[in-house]
């Protein structure tokens, strides 16, 4: 199970990066990066997963005393939450940039923005 | 050796002898050269006539201070060279002021007159003077080189820079002369000798035909007289150095007279039978022939 | 002491609260932002001070009240506090620099700036991996926001490219973090230590983590995105981006790699060096100032990354070295970016506008010197320690690459500085205003303060605490005064210093000191001619003299090297003052730095890392295997300074184009520093052989070749000062030959040249300079016949050339006499030939000098010229008097030196009795020579006067040639190509072999730069691909090495 999730995560990352590198359209690049981000998140969760354990919520079902044996590691999950939030922020910023770029030149083709070089 | 006042009259006497010898000998050589060319040539006393005439000239001009001083430098150079070198080995009085410096002094003092002369000629503003100086200096850079190497070779050979000691080392027989103990150095030095005696094929500096008499072009009257005086003594002074370094020196005035004459005749003879080199040709000549001999000389001592 | 976590809290809190306030009151908001940044800076500075003085201990801050790894912890030790100060102060100044944009865009932009500063500070403090990620992402977002502050619309594209790469970095980082966590079970950086990194999964995790952080450092070639930001962003922000973000990212790499173990260090070294060298090469072809600074930034970050890679061998010095380099880079780069906001044009030449404000030039010079690592700035001390440690650890290739990179970097930085000083300044090219100037000067002050601090390091020789250096600095402050007052003070300072130290020196050092210090004062007399304030002259000159003074005082390797660099820098600024000297000053500083690096390496080899190492300790290595290499390196450095053939091409231009009073300083005095170094070296190391070749013989050959070719080249010059410059090469060749003879008389000969060359070369340069002041030309064929108009100048040239050519009776003859005695028992025969050849060639150029200027025909435009200014003549007449006195009484200077050299070689070949000198081979009686010559001269002169006292002065054209009377001086003055016959015969020696060689080297490097920069296509996707390919390539290479 964990292996499948891990593999899926990496496939998503690679697919996302491939998309970001091959699509000239800025919006498509942003979407591709979102896919890659999702892949990263899946990898994060998959690494933290331990088979046969329950969610790290301490309630009646999981007494505090047995928590260490019964729950999976909560840290990766916390990380994923944070990463999702940050990813959202970055995506939003990229979209804002896309808007500015489009307004600047009426184009969303990244190869049109190469006046800075050498 | 230290200074005593009596040395001054002694030195003046030496100078007087050399001057007269020089005046006569150069005239004789000129006459010989003329005869070779099928001309009658000058009388042997011609130099005296020229000297007196030039001293007596009444109209004289000057182009400036250096122009005025040029002949003074020139003649000082010639006289000084004689005074810094002992003339007769073993003589109690013909040692001049050799105590002031050794061989190195003589070698470098040669340039004193040349430099002053060139400066004086330069101020005349005559382009021929400048051209003559340019040619002369260019040529001398290479022509003097074999001499410098030869001198170094024999200084190492005799382990001294003192001219007197070098002459002393050659005493006691013909085969003690440097000519036989170190022939390579002598051959090298003779390249320089022929190259700097202002005779064909190395006389383009004066070039009597194209640039009338080169550096001294503008000189006349007493200026020229001083230069003529120098022209009489300077070659002798040089010959004395060569004689002392390579040909056993002279122990008497007679020996001096013969050796100086014979040495002087070498460039004269070469001169009358050779056409003139251009400057770059003579530089190449010394580079090709003089330098290798000089190098061999310093490598083999 | 308030908790450092407040830095984060204040930053974040103010950023949020700005959003709550009225957006209209822009000035109030901006005031609040500034206050917040100010308070953050104050806290950081307070901690730095407390930690540095020991008043506080390293602070460990546990958030959430739980010990790590269960909660994030922050740490503030001395390095962290120093970096925090740097970051917050840069933030504060950057806010001021960007004030217009921040006020225009209002509170949002200010909040983003605060967040950026806060996040960068957090990056420095945090010890938690994931927290690291959060801060990095915050920085990315804030950066992308602040890029938009720029008016340049290209910045939008740049910002997007940046975000694309940030995405890739964050992917790498997150995957790296989670696998590291998986392997170690902790997110705390300090726990990485205890976990085994041996197995493959963990090392891959570590690799991803590190490489993500490294890409954040913009390594070559995965850095196109960063360069675009540097080019287009607001310079105030670029400063922050380079100084604060860059430094923090470096610190993070260090933080992570420290526990990860030393096997990761070669990776950092490799990437860092590649980045440093390649970025600098590419920067050579840059014409845009900000992009150039960008390349320089990524290069510097690469350098420091490489230094982090050396942390295993740096030991205790690690913080000192890395810190020195980081701070130098940050301060200088930030300062330059801020300055660029004042310069209106974007081309490098546009910086010429700085000239309108002298303090700006000082600022520029300070920053350039800091970047290149010149004294007295921290980078200099750091570079020294780094070199010592690297050589001690056997990492010579690393050091070589670093020095190569620095050399290339100095090439474009000094070229740029040259543009600023020399190029045409555009009208109104500088938008200077009090705030931006204030920012710049605060940065300059910071740089100098850091220089002092670094000099004050443990067991360190503090350059800025020495009297000569302080004097030089004081002259910066005296700049507003009139030049004549400053000149008087300068002369007094030099003489005062000499009076203070002269008593302690051995005779040899004393001769050098006399030439360098009071000798300098004599030349300075000529500077009384200059009117006005003469900005820049005195600080440069006094820096050079300070270097010389310290050189003579130096007792350790470091002191010597520091003095050497100060001298080089001062003389560079002096040379650059000449009207046409821009390219020549550049080649001067490059050759000098190259030479200095050779010296640095040589010293490092010799010391084996022991600091401080006394110069006298050099003899301890004389028997070691590495001694010949030390010899080669040191000699190469010193020969660069004496301009030995092959390393000489900087000299003719530098000496010829310098100002009238500078030429004698750099020629007559400065060249002697190289000889001084050679003496010191040979005294300690003695003869050395490399592969069976006696190195002193090699030196003798180099000396002979220089003596000969220098003279030949001098003959062919039309420019009087170039002629003198080539003559210096020749003269130094003689001196080098003398030193290399390694016998008593050889050394005495060299000492004689030290004195003589100073006197006659200074005199000739001054005379020619005086003529130049009147005729406004240095081309000799345009002059002629000046003897009657400038008689004093003529006399000094006359005396000078007689002395120089060695004709008796002047002092040059003494040199020749000692020379002949010296070679009598030398085994070297072949190089002698060259020396013999050089002698008469000297006549050629000297005669040409005097003839074509003073003799021959006077030109029409010169008929009303006056003699050179009197203050230029005064030192010349002093020199004339000295030359004549020295000719008659050489013993006054030489006898003691002779005795001293005798104590070194244990022999005494010269016997001094009375006024005469006797050697084993010959004798020399200077008084008698002078007396005879004077007597004969006077006698002959008297005869001539008796006969020709009534000679009539005639007019100029009273000559006849070719049956015509000339009317024009131009057609009659024989001057151009004066030695045409000599050129026909020996002209082949003029072939510019050496110049073509160095031209080929620089052309090749420039070509590589031009080729490489095409790599930066400008396409964001390409850049992203670069990053990925870079990561893959590094992985393949590194994992091959580690696993």
From TrEMBL, chain A:
Q: Where in the cell is it found?
A: Cell membrane
Q: Name one GO cellular component term.
A: plasma membrane
**Keywords on record:** Cell membrane, Membrane, Transmembrane, Transmembrane helix
Membrane topology, as annotated: Multi-pass membrane protein
What Gene3D superfamilies does the annotation carry? Answer: 1.10.287.3510
The UniProt entry lists the main location of this chain as membrane
Transmembrane domains' residue ranges: 29-50, 78-99
| Family in the record | Belongs to the CPA3 antiporters (TC 2.A.63) subunit C family.
Q: What is this protein called?
A: Multicomponent Na+:H+ antiporter subunit C
TrEMBL record, chain B:
Q: How does it sit in the membrane?
A: Multi-pass membrane protein
- Where is this protein localized, as stated in its record? Membrane
The record's Pfam families line, in alphabetical order, gives:
NADHdh (PF00146)
Where is this protein primarily located? membrane
Q: Which residues cross the membrane?
A: 6-29, 65-85, 97-121, 133-154, 174-194, 256-273
Q: Which GO terms describe its cellular component?
A: plasma membrane
Q: What is this protein called?
A: NADH-quinone oxidoreductase subunit H
UniProtKB/TrEMBL annotation, chain C:
Q: Where does it reside? A: Cell membrane; Membrane
Q: What is the role of this chain?
A: NDH-1 shuttles electrons from NADH, via FMN and iron-sulfur (Fe-S) centers, to quinones in the respiratory chain. The immediate electron acceptor for the enzyme in this species is believed to be ubiquinone. Couples the redox reaction to proton translocation (for every two electrons transferred, four hydrogen ions are translocated across the cytoplasmic membrane), and thus conserves the redox energy in a proton gradient.
An example Gene Ontology CC term for this record:
plasma membrane
Q: Which GO terms describe its molecular function?
A: lyase activity
Q: Which UniProt keywords apply?
A: Cell membrane, Lyase, Membrane, Transmembrane, Transmembrane helix
One Pfam family from the record: Proton_antipo_M
Segments traversing the membrane: 6-21, 28-56, 76-96, 108-126, 132-150, 162-182, 194-215, 227-252, 264-285, 292-311, 317-339, 360-377, 389-414, 435-455, 461-478, 485-503, 509-528, 535-552, 558-576, 588-606, 626-650, 662-683, 695-716, 723-741, 747-772, 784-808, 828-847, 868-889, 923-946, 1023-1042
Query: Which coarse location class applies to the principal site listed for this UniProt protein?
Result: membrane
Q: What membrane topology is annotated for this entry?
A: Multi-pass membrane protein
Q: Which domain of life is it from?
A: Bacteria
Establish whether keyword Lyase is in the entry. yes
In Swiss-Prot or TrEMBL terms, this protein is called Formate hydrogenlyase subunit 3/Multisubunit Na+/H+ antiporter, MnhD subunit
Name the protein family: Belongs to the CPA3 antiporters (TC 2.A.63) subunit D family.
The NADH:quinone oxidoreductase/Mrp antiporter transmembrane domain extends over 127-405, 556-834
This protein's species is Tropicimonas isoalkanivorans
UniProt KW Transmembrane helix keyword: yes
The record's section on InterPro entries has:
CPA3_Na-H_Antiporter_D (IPR050586), ND/Mrp_TM (IPR001750)
